[in-house]
Amino acid sequence: MEEDIFTPRNVDYNDDSIVHLEDMEHIRLRPGMYIGKLGDGSSHDDGIYVLIKEVIDNAIDEYTSGFGKKIEVKVDFAERRVSIRDYGRGIPLGKLVEAVSKLNTGAKYDSKVFQKSVGLNGVGTKAVNALSSFFQVQSFRDGKTRRVQFSDGKLVDDSGVAAYSGEDSGTLVEFIPDGKLFGNYHFIGEYVERRIWNYCYLNRGLTIYYNDKRYYSKNGLLDLLENNLQADPLYPIIHIKDGDFEAAFTHVPGQNNDYYYSFVNGQHTTEGGTHQSAFREGYARVVKDFIKKDYTPEVIRGGLVCALCVRIQEPVFEAQTKTKLGSTHLEPNKVDGSNDSPLLKTYILDILRNHLDNYLHIHPDTADALLAKINANEKERKEIAGIKKVAREASKKASLNNRKLRDCHVHYNTNHARRLESTIFITEGDSASGSITKSRDVDTQAVFSLRGKPKNTYSISKVDVYKNEELNLLHNALDIDDGIENLRYNNVVIATDADVDGMHIRLLLLTFFLRFYPELIQTGHVYILQTPLFRVRNKQKTTYCYTDEERVAAIQNTPHAEITRFKGLGEISPDEFKAFINSDMRLDPVLLHKDFDTQGTLSFYMGENSLERREFIMQNLRIEDDESIVVA
Q1: What is the mean pLDDT of the segment spanning 257-279?
Q2: What angle do helix axes 189-202 and 221-228 make, rounded to 10 degrees?
Q3: CA-CA distances (angstroms) from residue 412 to 417, 589, 600?
Q4: Which of 232, 292, 350, 602 is the most buried (most CB within 10 A)?
C-alpha cells in the first residue's frame, strides 16, 4: 500500500533540529534566493552573469553618485576569472571585510550617500563572495589600500591597511564562480557584452573598458534602440528625456505586439513592472487622443519597440534578482505607510502628454506614418478576428486530447520557486519525443511533438498561422499570441536530429519565431539542444561525444572501445537521454547580434530564390575524408 504523504515519519524533531547558518553558509545552501537559478552559462539569466552584474552595479552606483567616470571589466574565459575595477570612492578600509561578507551591511541604506541606486539590500557582493571559489577585493582610498581574499565565503587572507602611492581611488573585485555549485560552466561573451552596452546606454558619459575594448554611448536609449532594431523603423525614433524619465520608441513593420527594453535605475527589468505598464497605458491613451479614433490599446501599440528607463528612490522589486518593478510611487512610503510622492503611473502619463503629443503635432510625417501603421494593425485585427476565435476554440478542444503536448507542472508565468527552470522541448515526430518524454522532469519539462516539417512561414500572413493547426497549437502552447508577458516556459528548446532534415526543421521554427514572435528570441528564451553523436564505451566506462574531436579523444582513452553512432534522437534510450536533459544539458542559445540582418537572412535562406540558394550551396560544398558531404 502506498504511503500517505501525511503519515507521521519516525524522525526526531527536537532542539538539535533547529540549525543556525552563518550568512555565507545560507547563501551557499540557498543560492536561488539571492541570484535566481544557477545554470551553466548557456542562458543570459544564469547565475554567473548575475554575479558580474552585482559587482558592476556597485561600480555604477559610484558613477551615478558622481565618483569615477570609467570602469574596467575583464573576463578570462579560459580561467573563468572576472575582474572589475571602478574609480569611485573605494570601500571604507575599516569595514572592508564586513562590506563583502556580512548580510544587511552596506551604505545603500543611507539615501544621502547613494541616491537612486540599484543595490538596496546589502546582499549583492556578499552573494558573489559566497558563491565563488576565489574572491578578492582591494580598496584604494585616501592614499591607503587594503586587500582581503576569501574562498567559498570564508576569509583566507587580509593584507591589512598599507600605504598606496597611486592617485586613483576605487575598488577592485576579482572572483571565480565556484565549480562545485555551477558545475562545468562557461561564460558567453555576447551575454557579457550586451550587459556592458546596456550600462553605457543608461549612463551617458560613462566609459567601460571590457577586455580592453572601449564602450561608450553619447545618446543613451536612442543609441540602444538604433543598435538593436531588427527592421527599419517606420518613422524616425522619438526620444524623450524629462527628469528621471527617458524613453526612445518607434514602430517597425511586420510585428504584431509591442516590445520593450525596460530599466529602473540601470537595472534591466526583463519582466517589466509598474513603470512599463504605466508607459504602455499612457502611450496608448495619448496616441488615441491624438488620432481621435477609438482603437484598442493593442492595435495602437502593435509593432511598437521601446527602450524605457526611470530612476526612482528606493525601488521595490519583486525578487532579489530585480527583474520586475513593484513600486507604485517615485519615492518610498513613509514609516506610517502614507505617501505624498507622485504616482509612477501619473508621472509617466503627464510626461507623455506633454512631449509625445507636442512631437506628433510638430512632425506631421511621423504622425502620418504612425497612423498608417495603426490602420494596418486594425485591418489585420479584423481579418484575424473570425479565424482567431475558431482557431482558439479548436486549439482548446485539441489540447484536451492532444498528445502532441506533454505539459509540465511548473510554468514561467507563475510565482513558483522553480519557474526559471520551466522548459519545453520541441521535437520532430513521436519517436524523438518518446525518449525525452520518458526521461524528462515532469515538474519543469514539457514536450511538444511536431508531425514532421512545419510550414515555411516566411511569406505567409498571421491569418495563415491561425489556419495552420500545428503552428496554432504551438503558439497556444507557449501562450505568446498577445506578447511574451504570459510565456509559459522560460526555455524554448528546439530538439531535432543533427542531420539535414533536423537542421531544416530548426530553420523553419526559427523563421516562424523571427517572423511573428521575434521578442521570444530577442529576450533570450530560444535554444538548440545538443545531443551526442557518438557513444564510446567498454566494460569499464562510457563516454558520450558531441563532435568528431571528442570521439577521437575518447577512443584513445578507451581500450577495446565499442563505438555507436546515433543517427537520431529516437535511437537514444530514455535511461541515456536523462543525462542529456538534466541540469548539465548542453544548450546553444539562439542569439541575435547587433548587426544581424534578420530580413535579409530570412529572405535569402527561406524565400523563393531557389536558384540563388542552389548556387550558394554548390560553391560552399566540401568533401570530407569519409566522403560525406557537408556545408562549409
Answers
A1: 91
A2: 140
A3: 10, 18, 33
A4: 602
Percent of the chain residues past pLDDT 90, beyond the cut:
50
C-alpha angle 496-499-505 in degrees, rounded to nearest 5: 45
For the segment 577-593, the average pLDDT, to the nearest whole number, is 85
Q: 3-class SS at 285?
A: helix
C-alpha span between 430 and 439 (Å, rounded) = 14
Residue 33 contacts residue 168 (beta carbons within 8 Å): no
Are 531 and 496 in contact, with CB atoms under 8 Å apart? no
Indicate the pTM of the whole model: 0.82
Measure Cα distances from 88 to 22, 53, 63, 174, 342 in Å: 30, 17, 7, 16, 32
Smallest CA-to-CA distance from 106 within 57, 50, 177 is with 57
Question: How many beta carbons lie within 10 A of that of residue 306, not counting itself?
Answer: 23
Domains in the chain, please, with CATH?
Answer: 23-216 (3.30.565.10), 221-380 (3.30.230.10), 404-531+568-596 (3.40.50.670), 534-565 (no CATH), 600-632 (no CATH)
Instruction: Determine the Cα angle at 470 with ends 469 and 471, to 5°.
Output: 95
Q: Which three cell numbers mark 146? A: 587594503
Half-sphere exposure in the Cβ direction for 612 (13 Å, CA): 7
| pLDDT per position as a tens digit, 282-298 | 999 999 999 999 999 99
Give every CB contact of residue 488 below 8 A, 6+ residues apart in sequence.
411, 412, 413, 422, 424, 477, 478, 479
DSSP state of 9: P
Q: 303 with 356: CB under 8 angstroms?
A: no
User: Mapping DSSP to helix (H, G, I), strand (E, B) and coil, where does residue 158 land?
Assistant: strand
| Helix residue spans in 517-547 (DSSP H) | 518-522
A 10 A CB-CB count for 522 gives: 20
Q: How far is CA 61 from CA 119, 218, 468, 507, in A?
A: 8, 19, 51, 43
Average pLDDT over all residues of the chain: 86
* CA–CA dist 568, 544 (Å, integer): 14
The pair phi, psi for residue 26, each rounded to 5°, is -65, -40
Write the pLDDT tens digit of every residue in 509-531. 999 999 888 889 988 999 999 88
d(CA 604, CA 596): 13
pLDDT value at 146 more than 50 = yes
Spatial distance between the Cα atoms of 18 and 494, rounded to a whole number of angstroms: 45
Q: Give which of 118, 58, 35, 56 is closest to 320, Cα–Cα.
A: 35
* Whether pLDDT at 79 is above 80: yes
Q: Is the dihedral of CA 199, 205, 211, 213 positive or negative?
A: positive
Question: Pick from 45, 121, 74: which is nearest to 524 by CA?
Answer: 45
pLDDT for res 245: 95
Report the pLDDT value the prediction gives residue 108, as an integer from 0 to 100. 47
